[in-house]
Amino acid sequence: MQQPRFKILLLIITAYSLASGCQTEVNVSTESRKEKAINSLAKNDSTIYSVEDAMKLNGLNGLGVAVFENYQIVWTGSWGVKDIESKEPIDNNTAFSTASIAKPITATLFSILEEEGLINLKDPVSKYLKRWKIPESEYLKDTEITFEHLLSHTAGTSQHGFADFYEGDTIPTLTQSLKGELPNYDSEIEIRWIPGTNWGYSGGGYVMAQMAVEDSLGRTLADLADEYLFQPLGLKNTTLKQPNEDGFLTNIAKVHNEDGEIVGTGIPITPQIAASGLWSTPSDMATFVIEMQNALRNKNNSVISNKVAKRATAIVTSKVLGGWSLGWERRYGFGNYDWFSHGGANTGVGGHIYGTMTGGNGIAFFGNGANTNRLPVLDQFRNSIIKAHEWYIPIDKSLKKEMSKELIEIVTGKYVHTLFGEEVEIINSDKGLYIKGFIGNGTNELIFIGDNTFIVDESPSKMEIKKNESDGSISIALIRNHTTEKIETYKKV
Q1: Per-state percent for the chain, helix, strand, coil, to nearest 5
Q2: What's the count of helices (H) and strands (E) in the chain, helices before strands?
């Protein structure tokens, strides 16, 4: 895995900026930040690694990244190989299977189709379906499933994710997928609660939405994405077409297991394209996120409108991880910026895209390795990039109020997430109150602002700590964007 020389990287960055129309100058500050980001990855024990070192340590075969700042791509990088057998090096045009990152792309596309008058996201999906009908359910007696429900994972649909297929396998149809006639499932997709009343990640919900649009418009989702998003944005290395279809990409990274071996043919086929069938590069995804950011500020956007960008990123529910919109995670607050993002993980490949709601900053990166090989590298790299670029807005400590000894005693201690089982700890020290493990594996300051409520440094959500007078139990509820929706997410142990 040979790390590109500094001057070569600079030429690549400049060439990409000119080709994409981003007339950016790469100055000394950006160069030094890039070097710091690449060479300052840190583990929990504060051991410092370079990207190459981290890849070797974790057995990750290949990695690509694009970093953008102030609405422009400022640097890119690629390391490692497309596959362990050919050892052909990854370059900036190498596409990866992006897995669930297809979901926010699909949700944004659907918002565009709504603006075009082709669908209505508030309509019952049953109005559009022709090949298959939603199973009867007691939960649908008074409430019908809409596109909004499906795209925000609030429809109550089952089928979390799907197995990958390869050349020579029998590829299921969308109908077979919804009927559960495929690996990992043995029954038809189910409805598990009244739509809109809860949250549960559902790839099956996206399959239902995909089928509804294709049935209604008589076109494949891949073709619609090409017409309304990929071609207008000039994303030449991005597609929802699959390896068994005409028009698939040729410069691609193959998937690898935990031992660094190619899985199957190395090129997964995903019929559930709305849920997990996107292929793309870090640079193309960075271009897409920048267009979303420009659309949010209604400046320099040419494909995605301000209305669509707001529609797709507006928080629909706070019942999970600090917030979810139509396809986008809204749970991160790195540097006290508000982010829209999404990750993806298919067998042996995946990545993440992050964009700030304001300021035009962000990251897109992918790696062709299993979760155990890839995630430690990407998480450290993300933190290193954010730190190197100094994407941080200080919290307003003027809001801080004094805490009573009784309240300090109540709030300090260990808590367990009621859904995911993750543990956090609130610690009282001479420097103040801190929470450990709430955002990744870091330690973040808590600022008490009254009414048992705290600002959490680098979190988009405020935190309310409550004591149940009936049984004495103590729990944490997250409050997002002044909403009255308070969800108990952690219980004190």
Answers
A1: 30, 25, 45
A2: 13, 17
**Residue numbers of the domain that contains 193:** 97-388
- Alpha-carbon gap, residue 475 to 470, rounded angstroms: 13
- Identify which of 320, 366, 360, 367 has the alpha carbon closest to the alpha carbon of residue 340: 360
Q: Are residues 421 and 378 in the same domain?
A: no
Q: 42: closest CA among 32, 51, 30, 34? A: 51
* pLDDT profile of the chain (493 residues), mean per 10: 36 36 51 94 85 96 98 97 96 97 98 98 97 96 97 96 93 96 92 94 97 98 98 98 94 96 96 97 98 98 98 89 89 92 95 97 97 95 96 91 91 86 89 85 88 90 86 84 62 88
DSSP 384-452: HHHHHTT------GGG-----HHHHHHH-EEEEETTT--EEEEEEETTEEEEESSSTT-EEEEEEEETT
| Segment holding 453, helix H or strand E | strand 453-456
Do 314 and 437 belong together in one domain?
Answer: no
CATH of the domain at 228: 3.40.710.10
CA 14 – CA 26 distance, rounded (Å): 7
CA-based radius of gyration for the chain: 23
Q: Domain of 402: which CATH number?
A: 2.40.128.50
- Would you say 189 and 135 are in contact if contact means Cβ atoms under 8 Å apart? yes
Give the phi and the psi of residue 346 in degrees, each rounded to 5: -95, 175
Cα-Cα-Cα-Cα torsion 281, 285, 290, 295, nearest 10 degrees, comes to 150
According to DSSP, residue 51 is labeled H
User: For residue 438, which of 318, 317, 322, 316 has the smallest C-alpha distance?
Assistant: 322
Of 242, 230, 456, 432, which is closest to residue 333 (Cα–Cα)?
456
Residue 79 in domain: no
Name the phi and psi angles at 361, rounded to 5.
Answer: -105, 155
* Residue from 155, 137, 154, 135 nearest 145 by CA: 155
CA atoms within 13 A on the CB side of 183: 10
Closest listed residue to residue 351, CA positions, set 330, 331, 367: 367
Strands 362-367 and 413-417: unpaired
